[in-house]
Amino acid sequence: MADTPERIWIEQDDCPYFYEESELAEVGSHVTEYIRADLCHRPAPAATDTGLVRYDLSIFGNGIVEMGGGAYVRADQAKELLAAERAKTERWYKKAMDAGVITHSDGTTSHPMRKERDDLKADNAALTARVKELSETLDKQRELDNESTLHHYNRAKALETRLAAARKALEATHEAISEYYRYQTGGEMRGSYDGKPERNALWKSMYKARAALEDKP
Questions:
Q1: How far is CA 137 from CA 44, 123, 124, 128, in A?
Q2: Would you list the domain boundaries of the chain?
Q3: Which parts of the chain are beta strand (E)?
Q4: Which tens digits make up the pLDDT trace of 5-33?
Q5: What is the pTM of this model?
């Protein structure tokens, strides 16, 4: 292994990293890519302490060695975590876009469909108020219909009563007319019978029938 490992610094995605020749068994390859964790300006993964092996420069001058809390991480491990985070972000972004939400670079969100949503809420509130108004009107109309039905029922019963009284009065009128007719044609005579009682009975029965038909006393 070389005393002074060759380092090639490369700037990519705002994260400087380098390749270093190494034959360390724990690294597993002759040329290993490392990333300066403290110089990487990309957002850190949500679980950077899970599954990441930390490395740093050996104090004995023998290159990069595994060291807890070191300044470097394996690039392949970091990229795997970053790829998972990016995939998660893209999934949420797609869901947000499907829902009409736009996420800006500064982390703020806007809702192009918010006005349409608010308009729909207003329309729904107006429709709800209209339905309530129509429901109240329908209830009042039902009350009026019930009152009207009761009124017509009572009126029909009264007419039936008047009709029955009129029929009874007409029967009496028919009897009085028959009696007067017998007097006029020289029918059955009763002493000094002069027909006046029959005429009075006829008029009385006629007035009674008329009063029954007109519902007057």
A1: 64, 21, 20, 14
A2: 7-84, 114-214
A3: 7-12, 15-21, 31-36, 54-57, 64-66, 72-74, 102-103, 109-110
A4: 333 333 334 444 444 443 333 443 334 45
A5: 0.28
